[in-house]
């Protein structure tokens, strides 16, 4: 599989506007704002909106399909929405997230998926999985790879899957739920070095993750 463009980088689980800005200043293309109830990185709807306000459309709202607390604000969210285990049609485009073992094939997905995020069996666990399995599941949607990625293994993962983007949370934390900016910088540098060595363009897709809105 040939990949020509720069790999998009999303740092998931930021918990404040200051942290989001710091991560974007280091070169990330997007940040993930988690409102899923079972996540140690969860923020309140009010905090989520305050983060989105400083991210210029580069904040990705992360939630699960059965949750309704944030449903009223989804339509007005300025950036992309990432939905795990979608159960209802959100009425807008979204990033479909989950492990390859999900029961329903893409042809049976609900709503308007615009990208597919392939994650570990337990999202947010930081556990690496068999990324090569992703190559056996053809999908017409852009692929975002997640699950156990770190600065040490992301280049290998990219070379195997050739994803449109990569998503990391635990791999850039020293304490669960708290981002370490040195690890964030190292992760982004590893992705960019991988792209340069493979001859991929360093000019990102116009508007980065924002075209997924």
Description:
- With 213 residues, this protein is an alpha/beta fold.
- The protein has a single domain (8-200), classed as Aldolase class I (TIM Barrel).
- The protein has five helices and ten strands, in the order E-H-E-H-E-H-E-E-E-E-H-E-E-E-H.
- It has helices at residues 17-25, 45-52, 71-74, 154-161, 181-197, and strands at 8-12, 30-34, 59-64, 81-84, 93-98, 112-118, 143-145, 165-168, 173-175, 178-179.
- The strands form two sheets. An eight-stranded parallel beta barrel has the order 1-2-3-4-5-6-7-8, surrounded by four helices. A two-stranded antiparallel ribbon has the order 9-10.
- Strand 3 (59-64), helix 3 and strand 4 form a beta-alpha-beta unit.
- The longest helix is centred in the last third of the chain and has 17 residues, at 181-197.
- The chain starts with 7 loop residues before the first strand and ends in a 16-residue tail after the last helix.
- The mean pLDDT is 85.
Helical percent range?
Answer: 10-25%
Radius of gyration: 16 Å
Largest sheet: 8 strands, parallel, barrel
The total number of structural domains is 1
Low-confidence region ranges: none
CATH superfamily: Aldolase class I
The helix/strand order is EHEHEHEEEEHEEEH
Number of strands: 10
| Name of the top-level CATH class | Alpha Beta
Beta-strand share of residues: 15-25%
Q: Architecture in CATH?
A: Alpha-Beta Barrel
Task: Give the overall shape.
Answer: globular
CATH topology: TIM Barrel
Number of helices in the DSSP assignment: 5
* Strands ordered across the widest β-sheet: 1-2-3-4-5-6-7-8
Residue-averaged pLDDT: 85
Structural class: alpha/beta
How widely separated are the two ends? 26 Å
């Amino acid at each position: 599989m040939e990949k020509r463009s720069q790999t998009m980088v999303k740092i998931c689980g930021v918990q404040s506007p200051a942290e989001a800005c710091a991560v974007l200043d280091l070169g990330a293309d997007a940040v993930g704002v988690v409102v899923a109830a079972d996540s140690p990185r969860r923020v309140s709807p009010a905090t989520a909106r305050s983060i989105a306000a400083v991210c210029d459309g580069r904040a990705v709202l992360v939630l699960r399909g059965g949750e309704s607390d944030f449903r009223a604000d989804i339509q007005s969210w300025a950036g992309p929405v990432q939905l795990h285990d979608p159960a209802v049609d959100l009425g807008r485009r979204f990033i479909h997230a989950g492990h390859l073992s999900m029961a329903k094939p893409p042809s049976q997905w609900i709503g308007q998926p615009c990208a597919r995020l392939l994650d570990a069996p337990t999202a947010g666990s930081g556990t690496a999985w068999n990324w090569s399995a992703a190559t056996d599941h053809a999908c017409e949607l852009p692929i975002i790879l997640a699950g156990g990625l770190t600065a040490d293994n992301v280049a290998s993962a990219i070379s195997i899957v050739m994803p449109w983007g990569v998503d990391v949370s635990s791999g850039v934390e020293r304490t669960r739920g708290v981002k370490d900016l040195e690890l964030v910088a190292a992760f982004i540098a590893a992705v960019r070095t991988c792209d340069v060595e493979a001859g991929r363009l360093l000019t990102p897709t116009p508007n980065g993750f924002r075209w997924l809105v």
